[in-house]
Each structure stands twice: as C-alpha cells, then as structure tokens.
Amino acid sequence: MSTANTSHPIVTFIGGGNMASAIIGGLIRQGHPATALQVVEPWDEQRTRLAEQFPGMTVLEAASAALQGSSLVVWAVKPQTFKEAAAQAQPFLGDTLHLSVAAGITSDSISAWLGTSRTVRAMPNTPALVGLGMTGLFARPGVSDAERALVETVVKTTGDLVWVEAEAQLDAVTALSGSGPAYVFYFLEAMRDAGAQMGLPPEVAQRLAVGTFIGAATLAQRSSEPLQTLRERVTSKGGTTYAAITSMDAAGVKAKFEDALFAAQKRADELGREFGK
To answer: What is the value of pTM for the model shown?
Structure first.
C-alpha cells in the first residue's frame, strides 16, 4: 500500500490509460504527492510508461491487498472489462468511495459489482488531456457532501464539471460533451478541406479553422448574451455569413445535427444495458 502523507487521501486508479494519466498528472500539478497515488494496470508497457512519467507512484500489475486504505477508487477501464476488473478488486476495497469514468455502465451495475452504494459516475471528454475537459457527474444518495467535494477536487484537475440530478441525464451529457469533441473535429476537417479547395494551404486553413473555434467558444463562454444573439451579430443580411447560414438551413444541417446527438444518446443507453449485465 502507498505510504502517503496523511494530509492527502490515497487515490487508486483501476486502469492506467489516457484519462487516468490526465487525472494523475493534474493531481500532481496541484500538489497531490505521487506517493498518495496508485494505479492497477495489467499491460507491462503501460506500467513502465506510468512509472517513468510519475515517479513515486505505486504501479501494480493486478489488484491486491495494496488497495486497502484507498480513500477513492477511480475506475478508468473500458466498459466491456469493468465487471471482470471489479470482481478482481472488490475483495480488497471494502466500502470505499468509487468514481467511474467508464462510459455507459450504470451506477446500479457498479454498486452491485462492488457491494457499495458510495459510487459516482462521471462522463468526461478528451480535452481533459490538456486540462480543458468538460465532465458530467452523478452521485448516488449514499455519497456524502464531503465525498462529492473530494470527487470535485479530482475531476477539476482536468477542467470544468457539472452535476446532474438524474442518472439518465448522463446519456445526454455523453451525447453533447462526451462525444462532442469528435463533432468539433468533424467540422474542423470540413473547414480545412473547404479552405484548401478555395486555394489556401491546408495548414493555413486548419490554423484559421482551429483558431476560429477557440475564439468563438471563448466568446460564448465569457459573454452573457444568448448564443442566438452572438450568431446574429455576425450574420448581416445579404452578407457572406448570411449566405453560409442560409445554405445550411436549406440543407437541414441543424435538424440533422440534432438527430445525430439523439443517436449518440440512444447508443449511450444501449451500451449501459449491454455491458452492465
């Protein structure tokens, strides 16, 4: 078991992939000692990488008695391997607090597999890797306010967060922000490719597209005005933006995009049913 400074809770990660690494790195940058962190990672190559990247952190090949004493266990495993990993770790965990970042797996399944109601589900997204993530959280009634605060401390190392009142709302979070970065990349690709077809070097078109998304998103974040107002301010009737928006409206882009989000929400629900048995 990690020999940590008693002022810092021991946080254990089951799975040491990108999301776990992002949270671990964030915790260490905020002063959480590596000696108060441990990770279970079955792949030799990834264990070696983690040990080199985070000196002082305990890196384990499999769940063992070393997990006893954990204040929080973060489940950063693939949905299809969660049940097996839970069966291996549960005998060593007792009634500790659990935070799952595994997509789709419901808290009912997690609680049943781990034998505790002290569980929180999280739906993060990949910008967490650069500290700009957006995470949706749901806590079961058995989670105290102090435990929510601990979860927030961990999650905020990767960006912003919101709590939802009903677990089913996490499927909507998945559709909007969990899958959302892919939508942004999709539109960025289209902007880059169109710019290249208009004669710009692809790298210049991509720089323009990425910078525009960053700037527009930052403006939306900092402005108190509605999104519609911000859009209309750029859209002078008869101008270039008006031509683009009119073309997209005629093609039903907004409605089709909304349909795509509903498809993602539906699939999130299906995944929970599929892997939560």
So the answer is: 0.89
